[in-house]
Amino acid sequence: MALNGVPMQKAKAKWAKLDANPNIIVLETRIVDNAACAARDFSIGETVFQEEPLIVLPRQKGEEVEVFNKLEQIALTAGLGGNYLFSIYHFSKATEETKGRILEFFCPDLDKEGADYKRYIAACKAVVALPQFNNLDPEDLVRYLLVLRTNQHATGRELECSALYELGSKVTHSCEPNCLCTMNGTTIEYRAIRNIKKHDMLTFSYISAFDLWKSTLERRRIMAPARFFECCCSRCVGPDYTRRMRCPECKDPRMLYYMPGQVSFVPTVGEKTETPWTCKNEKCGKKWRDDELNLGLEQKIVSAVISTYFDVQAGTIQDRATAKQMLQYCDQELGPYHFASALMVYTQLALTHSAIKNGHAKAEPPEVVLPLSERLMYWFCINFPGTMEEANIASFLGGLAQLHGAYKLGARFFSTALPLLRVHWKTDHPHIVDMEAAVDLHGDEKAKKHAAIAK
């Protein structure tokens, strides 16, 4: 038996110690070496596995304050952030067996002539010059730090620690994951948020919330500096539906970007092309090169939307009139299917929700809010069906519809949210109970049937 042409026995032999979990088999795949795959079928809501950490890494200074002060100074000199090297202290205290197991984790392969590698190796050489760490190899420390970049999880009370999980490290990143990763103290748990077939690769997302709304181009800009790898999940190598724009010829907003063959080892439909943009209006169908489009304007609009409303450094913008103008501009220049327009629809609705909650009399009326709500829900239904992103936005929109007296619409939104939010929050969560009550009271039979999935 083989997966992606690689014999299962070959992959199992190397990681046999992890196959003690009956739910998991570690396989080599065409995309990822040593990937955790399902050993059986899983339904939505099932726990795939739980795991205790191989090592826990507090992010604060420990008792040997002077040592941590030196690590902090080295990190700041290297431009790595104040507490970035603190975990080396805890790594140095681990057993040789644990160190060896950690260094077997996947890590990105940096160019030794590149600026990132030189920054890391300089910092690690400075660390091993300290008497407390002179038994460590600087190359091993570079590998260890890169292991952390792609494998560590925030954990503990108030996320004051990070941790490494041996089996968890084999769960692959995807921008359309089939698992949800949650923490209970330092115990990690993966639950199925899609139906998973035996031998499917188990995946979860390293990025979340609004970043998953974005185009492949923008997601890669987030991932590359943070994780040092380029995602090649099916969403990233397929047509970029969240980046659809207006065709310059006919103004239809369904012009789609798709470049086949981006990654040599991932099969795609079609061959590389000089015209990756295609208008999906059957009467037009024109194809475009990048340089024939005003992609500079697209980037300016995206940057303005993100920096104004979705950058944590920007603070909270409460001007609904400006948000409305920004939405109109996005619709005009990019079209209603572009993720920047979707972000601005959400922004306008979120500001309206805040205004209502704060008792402002001039909040947007139902005839404005409800069509925008249905528009955003439709965007998620076609771009993110059956995902945690769709569930979260459906929950928000259901509450907003209720605030405007649209109880049947709210029940329809809640019915979309419930199956996956039960996986996240469990069935006795107060918000789950409230949504179920709303569906029972105001939902039609279709809504009630959908809401009962994974119940």
Report the β-strand fraction as a percent range.
5-15%
The figure for the number of domains is 4
What's the gyration radius in Å? 24 Å
Shape: globular
Can you give the mean pLDDT?
89
Q: How many beta-strand runs?
A: 16
Q: Which CATH architecture of the largest domain?
A: Alpha Horseshoe
Distance between the termini: 35 Å
Domain SET: 22-207
Protein name: SET domain-containing protein
Give a quick rundown of the structure:
The protein has 455 residues and is of the alpha+beta class. The chain is 44% helix and 13% strand.
Q: Topology, please?
A:
Blueprint: E1 2-3, E2 6-7, H1 8-14, E3 24-27, E4 35-38, E5 47-51, E6 55-58, H2 65-77, H3 86-93, H4 96-103, H5 115-128, H6 138-151, E7 153-155, E8 161-164, E9 172-173, E10 179-184, E11 187-192, E12 203-204, H7 216-227, H8 234-237, E13 240-245, E14 255-257, E15 277-278, E16 287-288, H9 295-309, H10 320-333, H11 339-357, H12 366-383, H13 388-403, H14 407-425, H15 430-442, H16 445-451
Parallel strand pairs: 9-12
Antiparallel strand pairs: 1-2, 3-4, 5-11, 6-8, 7-8, 10-11, 13-14, 14-15, 15-16
Helix pairs in contact: 5-6, 9-11, 10-11, 11-12, 12-13, 13-14, 14-15, 14-16
